[in-house]
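For the sake of transparency, this paper describes our internal protein records without simplification. Because each token names a local backbone shape, the row as a whole describes the fold. One such record is reproduced below, unchanged from the form in which we store it:
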Amino acid sequence: MKAVELIADVDEHHRLTATVPSDLYPGRVRVIVIVPEEDEAGDAWEPGLAHEWVAELADTREDIYTLDDGMPEDAAG
């Protein structure tokens, strides 16, 4: 048996939608759904965070770094 992790969506009609890798052959599969209990906000946190930080992220005084600053992460040294 082979396990493949997928990210899927459940719509308002309780239908599960997922895109599977192209090397997965058509046929019957067993699906196990794991629902994260600790994340009660679901997808609401991302737009909420963006709304809270919009002014700070738009402030040009926060643009203190450029692509020429610092060292690459994989640089020896």
